[in-house]
Write a structure and sequence with these properties.
Elements lengths: L1 E2 H8 L3 H9 L7 E2 L6 E3 L4 H12 L4 H9 L6 H17 L1 H17 L5 E11 L2 E9 L7 H11 L12 E7 L5 E9 L11 E5 L2 E9 L5 H15 L9 E5 L12 E7 L4
Protein backbone atom coordinates (compact mmCIF):
# COMPACT_ATOMS: atom_id res chain seq x y z
CA UNK A 1 0.00 0.00 0.00
CA UNK A 2 1.16 3.57 -0.70
CA UNK A 3 0.81 6.56 1.63
CA UNK A 4 -0.66 9.84 0.46
CA UNK A 5 2.87 11.28 0.57
CA UNK A 6 4.29 8.59 -1.71
CA UNK A 7 1.40 9.11 -4.13
CA UNK A 8 2.01 12.87 -4.14
CA UNK A 9 5.71 12.29 -4.89
CA UNK A 10 5.01 9.85 -7.74
CA UNK A 11 2.69 12.27 -9.55
CA UNK A 12 4.31 15.53 -8.34
CA UNK A 13 1.08 16.93 -6.94
CA UNK A 14 0.20 18.27 -3.51
CA UNK A 15 -1.36 16.12 -0.82
CA UNK A 16 -4.04 18.82 -0.58
CA UNK A 17 -5.16 17.90 -4.11
CA UNK A 18 -5.41 14.21 -3.22
CA UNK A 19 -7.38 14.94 -0.05
CA UNK A 20 -9.73 17.16 -2.05
CA UNK A 21 -10.34 14.38 -4.59
CA UNK A 22 -11.16 12.06 -1.69
CA UNK A 23 -13.54 14.60 -0.11
CA UNK A 24 -15.55 15.05 -3.33
CA UNK A 25 -15.67 11.34 -4.07
CA UNK A 26 -13.51 11.51 -7.20
CA UNK A 27 -10.57 9.41 -6.00
CA UNK A 28 -10.77 7.66 -2.64
CA UNK A 29 -8.07 5.64 -0.82
CA UNK A 30 -8.33 1.88 -0.79
CA UNK A 31 -8.00 1.89 2.99
CA UNK A 32 -8.12 4.34 5.89
CA UNK A 33 -6.28 3.42 9.08
CA UNK A 34 -8.65 2.72 11.92
CA UNK A 35 -6.43 4.30 14.56
CA UNK A 36 -4.55 7.05 12.76
CA UNK A 37 -6.98 7.74 9.86
CA UNK A 38 -4.03 7.68 7.44
CA UNK A 39 -4.97 7.18 3.80
CA UNK A 40 -3.51 4.16 2.00
CA UNK A 41 -3.70 3.53 -1.75
CA UNK A 42 -3.32 0.29 -3.68
CA UNK A 43 -0.85 0.13 -6.62
CA UNK A 44 -3.78 -0.79 -8.87
CA UNK A 45 -5.23 2.71 -8.31
CA UNK A 46 -2.30 4.56 -9.88
CA UNK A 47 -3.55 4.24 -13.46
CA UNK A 48 -6.90 5.77 -12.50
CA UNK A 49 -5.25 8.75 -10.78
CA UNK A 50 -2.92 9.20 -13.76
CA UNK A 51 -5.94 9.50 -16.08
CA UNK A 52 -7.72 11.93 -13.72
CA UNK A 53 -4.66 14.18 -13.43
CA UNK A 54 -4.15 14.08 -17.19
CA UNK A 55 -7.71 15.29 -17.79
CA UNK A 56 -7.40 17.99 -15.12
CA UNK A 57 -4.15 19.20 -16.71
CA UNK A 58 -6.16 19.69 -19.90
CA UNK A 59 -8.64 21.88 -17.92
CA UNK A 60 -11.45 19.31 -18.15
CA UNK A 61 -13.94 20.04 -15.35
CA UNK A 62 -14.17 17.81 -12.30
CA UNK A 63 -17.88 17.29 -12.99
CA UNK A 64 -17.12 15.87 -16.44
CA UNK A 65 -14.38 13.61 -15.04
CA UNK A 66 -16.72 12.34 -12.32
CA UNK A 67 -19.35 11.60 -14.98
CA UNK A 68 -16.79 9.68 -17.07
CA UNK A 69 -15.81 7.64 -14.03
CA UNK A 70 -19.40 6.90 -12.98
CA UNK A 71 -20.39 5.67 -16.45
CA UNK A 72 -17.20 3.64 -16.90
CA UNK A 73 -15.81 5.84 -19.69
CA UNK A 74 -12.66 7.07 -17.93
CA UNK A 75 -10.57 4.82 -20.21
CA UNK A 76 -12.64 5.39 -23.37
CA UNK A 77 -9.93 7.08 -25.45
CA UNK A 78 -12.30 7.93 -28.31
CA UNK A 79 -14.68 9.75 -25.99
CA UNK A 80 -11.79 11.48 -24.23
CA UNK A 81 -10.33 12.54 -27.59
CA UNK A 82 -13.66 14.10 -28.54
CA UNK A 83 -13.72 15.99 -25.25
CA UNK A 84 -10.16 17.22 -25.81
CA UNK A 85 -10.92 18.26 -29.37
CA UNK A 86 -13.88 20.31 -28.14
CA UNK A 87 -11.62 21.84 -25.50
CA UNK A 88 -9.03 22.69 -28.15
CA UNK A 89 -11.69 24.51 -30.17
CA UNK A 90 -12.58 26.63 -27.14
CA UNK A 91 -8.92 27.43 -26.64
CA UNK A 92 -8.57 28.52 -30.27
CA UNK A 93 -11.40 31.01 -29.67
CA UNK A 94 -9.33 32.50 -26.85
CA UNK A 95 -5.95 32.17 -28.52
CA UNK A 96 -4.58 35.42 -27.09
CA UNK A 97 -5.01 34.25 -23.47
CA UNK A 98 -4.82 30.48 -23.88
CA UNK A 99 -1.99 29.88 -26.36
CA UNK A 100 0.14 27.83 -23.95
CA UNK A 101 -2.76 25.57 -22.99
CA UNK A 102 -3.72 25.04 -26.64
CA UNK A 103 -0.19 23.83 -27.38
CA UNK A 104 -0.41 21.27 -24.57
CA UNK A 105 -3.78 19.92 -25.72
CA UNK A 106 -2.68 19.50 -29.34
CA UNK A 107 0.57 17.85 -28.28
CA UNK A 108 -1.28 15.37 -26.09
CA UNK A 109 -3.77 14.62 -28.89
CA UNK A 110 -0.99 13.95 -31.39
CA UNK A 111 1.34 12.05 -29.06
CA UNK A 112 -1.14 10.20 -26.85
CA UNK A 113 0.53 7.17 -25.38
CA UNK A 114 4.10 8.08 -26.45
CA UNK A 115 5.30 10.13 -23.48
CA UNK A 116 8.26 7.85 -22.86
CA UNK A 117 9.45 4.24 -22.53
CA UNK A 118 10.26 2.30 -19.41
CA UNK A 119 13.08 -0.20 -19.37
CA UNK A 120 11.48 -3.17 -17.58
CA UNK A 121 14.87 -4.44 -16.38
CA UNK A 122 15.45 -3.73 -12.69
CA UNK A 123 18.79 -3.52 -10.89
CA UNK A 124 19.08 -3.80 -7.11
CA UNK A 125 21.91 -1.74 -5.61
CA UNK A 126 23.06 -0.87 -2.12
CA UNK A 127 24.26 2.73 -2.20
CA UNK A 128 26.49 3.98 0.59
CA UNK A 129 25.76 7.37 2.15
CA UNK A 130 26.63 10.43 0.06
CA UNK A 131 26.18 14.19 0.16
CA UNK A 132 24.45 16.48 -2.35
CA UNK A 133 24.65 20.28 -2.52
CA UNK A 134 22.10 22.13 -4.62
CA UNK A 135 18.89 24.15 -4.67
CA UNK A 136 15.51 23.07 -3.31
CA UNK A 137 11.80 23.28 -4.16
CA UNK A 138 8.98 22.45 -1.74
CA UNK A 139 5.76 20.75 -2.80
CA UNK A 140 3.90 23.22 -0.58
CA UNK A 141 5.11 26.13 -2.75
CA UNK A 142 2.31 27.75 -4.72
CA UNK A 143 4.62 29.11 -7.40
CA UNK A 144 7.27 27.62 -9.63
CA UNK A 145 7.91 23.99 -10.50
CA UNK A 146 10.67 21.38 -10.53
CA UNK A 147 11.52 22.38 -14.10
CA UNK A 148 11.91 26.01 -12.99
CA UNK A 149 14.19 24.83 -10.18
CA UNK A 150 16.54 23.11 -12.64
CA UNK A 151 16.68 26.24 -14.77
CA UNK A 152 17.64 28.32 -11.72
CA UNK A 153 20.21 25.78 -10.57
CA UNK A 154 21.90 25.54 -13.98
CA UNK A 155 22.64 29.27 -13.76
CA UNK A 156 24.43 28.77 -10.44
CA UNK A 157 25.82 25.23 -10.60
CA UNK A 158 29.35 26.60 -11.03
CA UNK A 159 29.18 27.85 -7.42
CA UNK A 160 29.19 24.30 -6.01
CA UNK A 161 32.69 23.21 -4.96
CA UNK A 162 34.34 19.79 -4.44
CA UNK A 163 32.02 18.09 -6.94
CA UNK A 164 32.68 14.34 -7.17
CA UNK A 165 31.64 14.11 -10.83
CA UNK A 166 30.49 17.24 -12.71
CA UNK A 167 28.96 15.04 -15.43
CA UNK A 168 26.42 13.54 -13.01
CA UNK A 169 23.67 15.53 -11.31
CA UNK A 170 20.91 14.44 -8.95
CA UNK A 171 17.23 15.19 -8.42
CA UNK A 172 16.42 14.15 -4.85
CA UNK A 173 12.87 13.53 -3.63
CA UNK A 174 12.88 14.01 0.15
CA UNK A 175 9.71 13.01 2.04
CA UNK A 176 8.45 15.36 4.72
CA UNK A 177 5.63 15.62 7.23
CA UNK A 178 1.94 15.38 6.29
CA UNK A 179 2.74 13.97 2.85
CA UNK A 180 4.78 16.98 1.70
CA UNK A 181 8.13 16.53 -0.02
CA UNK A 182 11.18 18.57 -0.99
CA UNK A 183 12.98 18.25 -4.33
CA UNK A 184 16.68 19.13 -4.53
CA UNK A 185 18.61 19.60 -7.77
CA UNK A 186 22.34 19.33 -7.20
CA UNK A 187 25.72 17.59 -7.37
CA UNK A 188 27.36 14.99 -5.17
CA UNK A 189 30.23 16.55 -3.21
CA UNK A 190 33.27 15.05 -1.48
CA UNK A 191 33.71 14.32 2.19
CA UNK A 192 35.64 17.52 2.86
CA UNK A 193 33.89 20.36 4.67
CA UNK A 194 32.02 22.01 1.81
CA UNK A 195 30.94 25.62 1.95
CA UNK A 196 27.30 25.78 0.89
CA UNK A 197 26.59 28.75 -1.41
CA UNK A 198 23.93 31.23 -0.32
CA UNK A 199 20.46 30.03 -1.27
CA UNK A 200 21.55 26.40 -1.55
CA UNK A 201 21.28 23.42 0.81
CA UNK A 202 23.37 20.39 1.74
CA UNK A 203 21.59 17.02 1.97
CA UNK A 204 23.05 13.92 3.60
CA UNK A 205 21.60 10.90 1.81
CA UNK A 206 21.88 7.84 4.11
CA UNK A 207 22.91 4.36 3.04
CA UNK A 208 19.96 2.66 1.35
CA UNK A 209 18.96 -0.19 -0.96
CA UNK A 210 17.40 0.86 -4.26
CA UNK A 211 15.58 -0.64 -7.21
CA UNK A 212 17.02 1.13 -10.25
CA UNK A 213 15.02 1.65 -13.45
CA UNK A 214 15.85 3.52 -16.64
CA UNK A 215 13.38 6.07 -18.02
CA UNK A 216 13.66 6.77 -21.74
CA UNK A 217 12.08 9.84 -23.33
CA UNK A 218 11.24 13.40 -22.36
CA UNK A 219 11.32 14.48 -18.72
CA UNK A 220 7.54 15.01 -18.54
CA UNK A 221 7.16 11.28 -19.13
CA UNK A 222 8.78 10.51 -15.75
CA UNK A 223 5.27 10.71 -14.24
CA UNK A 224 4.16 7.77 -16.43
CA UNK A 225 7.35 5.85 -15.70
CA UNK A 226 7.06 6.31 -11.93
CA UNK A 227 3.44 5.18 -12.11
CA UNK A 228 4.45 2.04 -14.02
CA UNK A 229 7.19 1.28 -11.51
CA UNK A 230 4.93 1.46 -8.47
CA UNK A 231 1.89 -0.05 -10.18
CA UNK A 232 3.52 -2.96 -11.99
CA UNK A 233 7.27 -3.47 -11.81
CA UNK A 234 7.84 -3.34 -8.06
CA UNK A 235 4.97 -5.80 -7.29
CA UNK A 236 6.00 -8.07 -10.18
CA UNK A 237 9.52 -8.31 -8.77
CA UNK A 238 8.36 -8.79 -5.18
CA UNK A 239 9.87 -5.47 -4.09
CA UNK A 240 8.42 -3.29 -1.34
CA UNK A 241 9.00 0.48 -1.54
CA UNK A 242 9.81 2.45 1.60
CA UNK A 243 9.29 6.11 2.36
CA UNK A 244 12.85 7.43 2.06
CA UNK A 245 14.86 9.69 -0.22
CA UNK A 246 14.51 8.65 -3.87
CA UNK A 247 16.43 10.25 -6.68
CA UNK A 248 16.87 10.77 -10.41
CA UNK A 249 20.40 10.42 -11.81
CA UNK A 250 21.32 12.52 -14.85
CA UNK A 251 24.51 11.64 -16.73
CA UNK A 252 25.82 11.73 -20.32
CA UNK A 253 22.66 9.96 -21.51
CA UNK A 254 20.62 13.07 -20.66
CA UNK A 255 20.29 14.83 -24.02
CA UNK A 256 17.76 17.48 -23.00
CA UNK A 257 14.41 17.70 -21.22
CA UNK A 258 12.42 17.27 -24.46
CA UNK A 259 14.75 14.85 -26.29
CA UNK A 260 13.15 11.53 -27.26
CA UNK A 261 16.42 9.61 -26.69
CA UNK A 262 17.13 10.98 -23.22
CA UNK A 263 17.76 8.34 -20.53
CA UNK A 264 17.47 8.96 -16.78
CA UNK A 265 18.04 6.43 -14.00
CA UNK A 266 15.42 6.37 -11.25
CA UNK A 267 16.51 5.12 -7.82
CA UNK A 268 13.50 3.88 -5.80
CA UNK A 269 14.21 3.07 -2.12
CA UNK A 270 13.11 -0.44 -1.20
CA UNK A 271 12.97 -2.66 1.88
CA UNK A 272 15.65 -5.38 2.08
CA UNK A 273 15.96 -8.02 4.79
Amino acid sequence: MLTVGQLARIFRVSTKTLRHYDAIGLFAPAKVGGDNLYRYYAPQQLNELKRILFLRSMKVGIGIIRELKCCGALYDDERIKRILEEQAELIRDEIARQHALLHNVEQILSDMGSAGKLDREVRIVRRTAFTVVGMEWHSSDSGGSISDLWERFELREHEVSHIVNPDISYGLGIPGKDGLFTYVAGFEVGEVEVQVPHGMVKVEVPEQSYAVFSHQGNVEGIVHTMSGIYECLLPQNGLVPVEAIDYELYDARFLGADHADTEIDLYIPIHME
